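pls read this stuff:
=====
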Amino acid sequence: MSPRQSMLRASAPVRVGCGANGVAMQFDVLVVGCGPVGALAANLLGRAGLKTLVVEQELEPHPLPRAVHLDHEAMRLLQSAGVADAVASDMREAEGHLHVGAEARSIEPGAHRTSRTIWLRS
């Protein structure tokens, strides 16, 4: 086990019911919630070799977009999870953004300029 894995490993494995074959299932990590952060955390933990269980109360994904802006650091995280190219095709570059709430009103007045950042595709 690498030092990184030992840092991430829980003090005791998570035990969950019985699998299809009647054997108790064990996991190294339990991630509660499969939103953007939980999904990325579970992906990175699994890629680090940890047996990860994700629990989510919702049956369907949230119907509206969650991210309005990703910077180069976020793209590098997605790249390390192996999904940057897949999500990049759904993105578009913008010179700024305006936060609009459910009532179609601006949450923060005015457009916000963002600096141009770079991430390198693998």
